[in-house]
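Records of this kind hold a single protein each, on a pair of labelled lines. With that in mind, the following record should read easily:
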Amino acid sequence: MNGFLNMIGMLITLLGLWQPVGDIPTVVVTPSIPAPDSMHQRASAFMGDYFRHLSSPEVLEDFERDYAPYVSYYDKRVDRATLMRDKARFVHRWPKRSYRLREESLDVSCDTPDLCMVTGLVDFECRSAERHAVSTGVARFYSGIWFQGGNGQIVAEQSDVIRQP
């Protein structure tokens, strides 16, 4: 056993893997705050994912992750359960949904390290075969996205239809 330890010690010395304590550089670790451009990219990507979720059949499952526990929802403070009931009514009213984010319209403002406000335009088409109804147009959305930890969550939401055919 002592021979094995001596051999490891010699390899460390020969390969230069050992340094006297005085020669070891000092490393300072500071917390990472995402650069503003990185936050803008994260907020833009989040909104792209959000509208893909809204267009999918599994939207309600995705929304459980997309929304914070409390949201400023059309100028009212609501909890996630209340918001999810409203979203479920919408999804059942319009079972077929297609949303296309106009990425060139995005305006992202990140004034704090973990909160971004995003506004932009989205083209939509919603259909209900059961009701023989179709709704199409363009909407302007306003979203507040809170980035705590690795994922973003919507903390504020509002939208206005600005054009329907």
